[in-house]
Amino acid sequence: MNRRDVLKSSVTALISLPLLAAPADAANKVSASDHQRIRELARQAYIYALPMVENYYTIYQYAIDKGNPQYKAPFNQFGNVSRVFTPDDTSIVTPNSDTPYSFLMVDLRAEPLVVTLPAIEENRYYSMQLVDLYTHNLDFLGTRKDGNGGGKFLLAGPDWQGEVPAGIKRMIRFPTQFGFALIRTQLFNPDDIENVKTIQEQYHAEPLSRYLGVAAPAAAPEIHWPVIDRESAEKDFWSYVPFLFRLAPPLKWEMDLRKQFETIGLAAGDKWPTRTLSPRVREIIRKTGQETRAEIDEGVRRLTTSIGLFGTPDKMRDKYWERALGAKGGIYGNDVEETVYPIIPFDNKGERLDASRHNYIMRFVDGKFPPVDAFWSLTVYDGPTKLLVHNPIGRYLINSTMEKQLQKNADGDIILYIQKESPGTDLESNWLPAANGPINLVMRLYLPRKEVLTGEWIRPDVEQNG
C-alpha cells in the first residue's frame, strides 16, 4: 500500500477525530489510533506543501519585498542578474553559478503574458524554465525545444479562454495563476559578460492587451502577502499553507487529497490553526511537521541524482516525496532532458565529503569530459546550507568553458583538486576551492546525451587525496 492509499483509507476516520473545540479535558484526549492517523495526514500534508512554501519564500523575496536585497523586479517584469551567482545570493539552495539568470515572476489573473526571446548565436545555450506554484516544470522555451531563433510565446492562466493571436510561436498553460520563470543564458568566459547583457536586455514581457493594442482588462484585486523569511518558513510553516492553497487550486487528481487536508485545518483561505482544532491536535500537527522536515533533510543529504525529482504535473503525479526532496535540495531544477544533476555527497569510500578532514580529486581519464550537447560543470557547496562559499580566488565551479586551461598529467588525465588550500601554482587552474568543513558537489550536464540518460555514462569518482 502506498502513501496515497494510506491517506484514502484514513479519511473517513479522520473526519470523526476530536478536532472540534470542546471542554479542555475532552478536547485534549486523543486515542492512540487517532493520534497515528493525524500524524499520517500531517506528514503527507507537510510533504505536499513544502515545495509551495519554499517557492513562495523565493517569490516573496524576488517580486514582493522591495526592500529585500534579493529583490529582482515586480510581477510580470524581467529582472536580469548580469553576473553569475556568488555566496551573496542566498535565496536559492545549490544555485547555478554557470549562467547569468533572468527572473520573471508571473501573475496571470487579469490576462495572459507575451514573452519575447531574441535570436542568439547557434552555439550559445539558453532556456526559459516555466514553473507553477507547486514547483512543477510546465515547459521550457529556448535552445532544446525551439532552437535559438527566438520568438514570442504566450503564458496563460488556467481560466483564460481566448484565442491565441497571430505571431505567437507557442502557448503554455499554467495550472496556477501565479508562477515562476527563469532564463539561463550561457556565459562562455568572463569577457563574454557584455554579450550576455545584450541578450538579457532583449528579454521582454508584456500583457496580451498591450501586444494586441487593445484596452486592458480590469486589474486583479490586491493580495495581502504574508511576510516570510527563512526562519518563519520553518517555524510558521502551517500558517502559509491555507494561503497558498487559495492561490493553487487542487489538480484534478488531488481533489480528495485536499479535502483530507481540510480535516486538520488546511482549507484554502483559512487561517491556521483554526479555532476548531483542539490544542492536542495542534500539538500533534506541529510536532509531526518538525519531524517530517528532519526526515526530508536527511533524504536530501542522501541524494545522489536529480533524476525523478523534477517534471511536469503529469510526470510528478503522486510523487510528493520526490518533489519535496527536489524543492529542499535544489529548487527549480530542470527536467532531465534539459539538465541532469549528479549529486555527490560521498567519496568513493562511502564517507561524507569533508574538506576539513581530506583533500579530494576527480579524475577525467584521457581528458574525456561528460557527454553533453551544451556544457557541463562541477560546483562545490557548503554541506549544511547548500550555498556557495567565499574562497581566495573567487572560483565556485569548473566547467566546460575552462577545459583548454586545465592541466593534463603525464598519462593524459585531467585531475581536478577539490580542497581548501591551493594544490600549488602549477595546478591552480585545476583547483576547485572548498570550504573548511562538510561540502557537497553537484555536476550539471546541460542537454545531456543519450548515454547519460540511459546510465551508460558513469560519472568519475571523488577520491580522497590526503
TrEMBL record:
UniProt KW DNA repair keyword: no
Residues of the DUF1214 domain: 338-449
Keyword field: Signal
Signal sequence region: 1-26
UniProt KW Signal keyword: yes
Record-linked InterPro entries: DUF1214 (IPR010621), DUF1214_C_sf (IPR037049), DUF1254 (IPR010679), DUF1254_sf (IPR037050)
Domain DUF1254: 75-207
PANTHER family, sorted: BLL3101 PROTEIN (PTHR36509:SF2)
Name assigned to this protein: DUF1254 domain-containing protein
Organism: Rhizobium lusitanum
